[in-house]
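cache lookup: miss for this entity combination. No prior model stored, computing from scratch. Input as submitted by user K.M.:
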Amino acid sequence: MSEILVVGSLAYDSISTPSGKVDRALGGSANYFSLAASLFSKVRVVGVVGEDYDQNDYELLHSRGVDLSGLSKVPGKTFHWEGSYEGDLNEAKTLKTELNVFEHFNPQLPEHFKDSSFVFLANIAPELQLQVLEQVKSPKFVGMDTMNFWISIKKEKLIDVLKKVDLVLINEGEAKMLTGAANAISAAPLITAMGPQAVVIKRGEYGFAMYSKTEGYFILPAMPIPTVVDPTGAGDTFAGGFFGYLAAQKTVPTIAHLKQACIMGSMMASHTIQDFSVRALSKVTLGDLEKRLAEYKKVITI
Amino acid sequence: MSEILVVGSLAYDSISTPSGKVDRALGGSANYFSLAASLFSKVRVVGVVGEDYDQNDYELLHSRGVDLSGLSKVPGKTFHWEGSYEGDLNEAKTLKTELNVFEHFNPQLPEHFKDSSFVFLANIAPELQLQVLEQVKSPKFVGMDTMNFWISIKKEKLIDVLKKVDLVLINEGEAKMLTGAANAISAAPLITAMGPQAVVIKRGEYGFAMYSKTEGYFILPAMPIPTVVDPTGAGDTFAGGFFGYLAAQKTVPTIAHLKQACIMGSMMASHTIQDFSVRALSKVTLGDLEKRLAEYKKVITI
């Protein structure tokens, strides 16, 4: 089996949306990613939590076969994010970011994580992404995400990471910010010119646009979901479904695999947004995904 | 052959975008619509222009076989719109609207227009849309567009028109405004509940979302176009390609026809945005469309 290594945040999120609010609910890129990816593949997590991290939140990943031996618990409190969404829910307004134990995160891979075949560097500081990559022996396929904060203050270092990965998953606003392009279509080839073979631009309610150096664009809409309860974690869920599917193919990914992986990521994310936090995601089965995929194919078939 | 009747504006537009600017270039919904639709079908135009309307601009439609006997030339100046686009070009900033002769537009159908099978009521005052509809004997298929201005000041009258049409083509922001829905997906069934069998929500760079009472959603992305020169008229071009294709099928449209019509509208609009005014659109051939359709199918094929 091909294992996936993910490094990212484990967090408690306080979120309000037009559908309601939650306080200190489970969140963080590594949690969303792992829950999604573990439906298809073995996942290994590298991250840090504080003393307040709930035993049930460990158990959730543990029950999905996720290897948590790279997760350190240190004195202090777990990363906490507070945000709100209004109107069309396309953009979160950050009300508070308490880095807490995440501020001094120093990712160290357990020895048995170093042979991981698939690696996903979720949105953390570019130096830390590099530090993780240096510890992995010979990965088959490496992907990364980032965010506006790192683009504005650590762009050079970020470009160093871009040179070392096979694929970037990035949201549309950040793709434009990174490249200075006016739209996702013109941003995509500028991003692959920085190094990676392919880029997947996440467009929220509009779906995704993938671009690969060899085969150009692959673009599809999102599954139509009339009521979005909470979009938090949709991008990390997409990445988890994407990598989970890829790793399960047990081979070096082809473009055909990447296309299918986009669809899987998209179907998985369409569940996440239907409830707060990881509530909907943690209940999704392969049967649910297949059913949704069949509905989706009807929506996009001419 | 099934004739299409269109009622809408004929205008001169002054437009600036990041790609440059044009002054008093040909525009207006009826022009974009007719140029697109006439590639497939016979088109009849009802509209009004001023004494400044250029003979070459008549000739352009005339050369495409468009019947201009419903076009009246009256004392005064032609409708003039001035706008600018910035950044991602998703929204025009209106700098000036001079209604001129359009202010007292009183659409009267020539006798031989009254048997038109397909009718498109472009974005004009709802009372005028009704006035046109009352003059048509027994149309097979009626579509309409509208805009934020009419939604805010003439919503009731607009709802009267909605009850009498088969299909609405509307942009995403206006669909949300009309229904109070948070997104296009939830807006769509609220619009069909007002009367029409189907709605096509135009999403600009993200493509379109169609919804029909009988078969639900049909959603696809736009053709990827790296450099958008001028998005003006893209929606009216979409409608023209859509109706042109439908009318050419010479039968009452099925959902399968409507889906193909969306694709044709979308392919046609992807040309319009590649140059200012009607420059690119007026040169498009059926061969160009077929070529683009083949490229598009590669982009959306899993």
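stored under new cache key. The first strand of chain B starts at residue 4 and ends at 7.
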